[in-house]
Amino acid sequence: MFIRWIARIIAVLNSNRRPIEVGAAVACAFLLALMPSGNLLWIILFLLTFFLRLNLGIEMVFLAVFGLLAPLVDRPVDAVGYWFLTIPGLQGLFTALYAVPLAPFTRFNNSMVAGGLLLGLAAWIPVCLLAMQGVVLYRRHVHPRIVNSKLVRAIKSSPLVSRLSLAVGRVRGMYGAAGS
Amino acid sequence: MAEKKLPRPFNRPIPESRYLRKVLGRVYLEPDREYLKSLFAADEVGMVRLVREPTDDERKRIRKIAKEVRRNRGVVQKGKLTILIIIIAGVAVFDLAFKNILVTRAGDQLLESAFGARSNLSGVDFRPLRGSISFSSLTVADKSRPMMNLFELGSTRMDVDTLRLLGGHLIITRMEAKGIRWGTPRKISGALTQAPSSRAPSSQGKSDPTAAGSSGGVAVPEISSVLAGLNIPVPGSFDAKKFVESHAQDLKSVTKITEITSRADTLTQIWKDRVAALASDAQAAAGRASELSSIDVNGIKSLDAAVAAYKQVQDAGAVISKTSTEAQTAYDAANADISAFAAQAAAIPGLVSADSRYLVSLVPDISTGGREILTKIVEVYVRAAIGSWYDRLLQGYGVVTRLADQKTATEKPRTRRLPGRTVVFPSAALPRFWLKQASFDAADTTQSLTLAGRVLDVTSDPDLIGMPASFDFQGRSGAASLEVRGEVDGRKDAADRVSVAASTSGQPLDISGGLEGLEISSVKGNLKLSTGITLMAGGGAAGRVQMEASSLAVTGTYARDSFGGILADVLQQDLPLEAAFDYRVAPDGSISFPSGTTNLDQAVNEVLKSRAKQITDALQARVKTELDGLIAAHQPEIDAAKAQAESVRSAVRNQLDTVAAAGNQVESVQKQLDARTAAIKNQAQQQLQNQLNSLQKGVKIPGLGQ
């Protein structure tokens, strides 16, 4: 299963898919990881990614990775969220928002939810652009070198890599061939 | 074999700008881009078309690239979105079609969670746009008595704030229920197979009186056991003779009588001998006196004869005097003995009285136990009433607590990450559940029964709404009425958890069991009862019960002099019987009565005292009669002893008289002798003078003249 996930990521990186799909997936994973789960807002955002053209595999993997790291930034997230929720000028807005049906289920009035959303949205574009740039650079410079290196050619002969290669082939079949 | 047609957009010439934007712009791998550039080129009119015929492999590759180009089109995956819309529409249709079933299940789950017993909703009609829920019937089982319903509702309608419902708040602005009933039987057990929530209050788990049933929460003693412990004497079965006999050895009068009669016998014997000796001496003295009568005092001519007679009289006088002295002494001794005997006999009535008092004191005085008896009888019903109320209050408080527990359960902090801080916006903060107002009524024209009540502000978060839940209830059946008001305060800083005041009037009182021991089959009348109970934050409850019973009628086979008869008189008097008790219910459900007042102290106790005095007097009279009988059995012995003593006195007196007569006789003789002696002496003296005178005339003595 894990090999298949890895294969899917490699296939996406090596396929003709738009770099923004990867960038958006990483940015969404970052946003979701900053927010505590178990509220309607998180669920809506998560479901939303299913209907957007972004790579779910990359999103899942990065969600897991960012999820492990998220507790490290809990305090800043909490502080930002609390600051945001207590801005006097926004109290009327929040009060009205809280009265909106289903809004309480989003727990937007929780400092971790609000802070995670705020920081996640603020970081969304930079993270997305960084990830896109990374994909472009990978495809332009890294991937050709890797493919043509002697080491990779040697490794390709090992059974594990054979299986990986087979998986990549299957995934590529799904996503479409992308040259070598 | 015909060559397969190239896929769109490669199957026809397209403008170069569009080709660059829609095709080449969506190919991101350099090899593919270079490949397409080698295969497609713009002509002189700016249309991009094939520059050469592709091979079969190239056609395959072009098809793959075309597929990827299409996939890289747009931001939203329309196919998945369409599926989502279809699913949502399906759910909406399903919800509309099965909304009533869903509401029924949700309602049952909510009620089962709140009451801890099975709930059955039926005939549910949920109209979300109108914001109303109605149902035709609802039954909620009693957790402690699964085969009974805690309550049952008929046609009921609720106005729900639908928008708030979408916001996660079940706000019932108004609820109207008809046909409410309590304690109706069930055909199927209402016990839940599994507890609906593991978050039941711990206090409920420790000593949940509701779990023990209405009779299990508070121990209610049987009246028969109360009466059995009082050991009340019943005159009809009281054997006074046996009672006196069993205490005879302790009676001083009986002992004294025995002692007196014995002493009388001894005295009689002693004085019998002494009187005989005295009689002999008296006879001797009388004989000596009689001998003196033979003396012819006038016949005494000489002095010697007079001296001799005088000496005889002196001797007789000495004997008689001695005898007289002995008789007087015996008489005085007899008098002393008889006086002592009389004094002892005179003490007997006093001893009899003392013994009578002693025996009477052994007869139980039921007048002092009367209040205790009635208090205990009342206490049985008070305990039953309080126990029932206490159970219901705990059930009500349990509902509120479970609702509040559900609120707190949803706010459990996550462990791995910071829970964050929830900013509460006051104007928008609402509890998850809030029943603002519920009214219910029931009317049964066949029994002229009307019931009505209101429940206000039942909520899952009393602290948020800042007020306790309150309720009031009025019921009327004929002349009987019931009114209940109270508050259930689930707020954290609440001093009292539940406070309830209830009062009834015109309530029929019908006690038809438990008084068989008193031969009373039923007590019927009117009861007016008011009570207040407060469940304290620390557990347990305290309150006061005031009762007034009037127009009581007692039926039974009790005898008038039995305690049942007394109780009947007490209950049937004109004065209403009132009682007020302060009570405390400990956390374990046990009830104590720290204080209580009642006009039973006056009205009942007076009747009891009067009747008790009659009985006690009768018992005492019977005891006294028995004692008098016992004394009367000894009376002839006492009278005989008295007669004997009197005869002794009389005999001694006779002897004393005899001796006195003899003494008088001697004295008389002595007086005659004295007179005769004096006469003789005068006569001799005269004669001697005469002779001396005659001698003087015949003989001249020289020197004397003549």
Describe this structure in words.
The complex is a heterodimer of chains A (180) and B (706). Chain A is mostly helical and 180 residues long. Chain A has a domain at 18-142. Helices cover 78% and strands 0% of the residues of chain A. Chain A is built from 10 helices and no strands. In chain A, helix 1 packs across helix 10 (159-175) and helix 5 (74-85) crosses helix 8 (111-148). Chain B has helices spanning 16-23, 30-39, 56-71, 78-115, 162-166, 202-207, 223-228, 240-246, 252-292, 303-362, 366-410, 462-465, 563-572, 603-698, and strands at residues 14-15, 40-42, 47-50, 119-122, 125-127, 132-135, 137-141, 149-153, 156-160, 170-178, 181-182, 433-444, 449-459, 469-477, 480-488, 496-511, 520-536, 541-556, 577-585, 591-598. In chain B, helix 8 (240-246) packs across helix 14 (603-698), helix 10 packs antiparallel against helix 14 (603-698) and helix 13 (563-572) crosses helix 14 (603-698). In chain B, the strands form 3 sheets. A 13-stranded mixed sheet of chain B has the order 5-6-9-10-12-13-14-15-16-17-18-19-20. In chain B, 29% of the residues are buried. At the A-B interface, helix 5, helix 6, helix 7 and helix 8 of A face helix 2, helix 3, helix 4 and helix 5 of B.
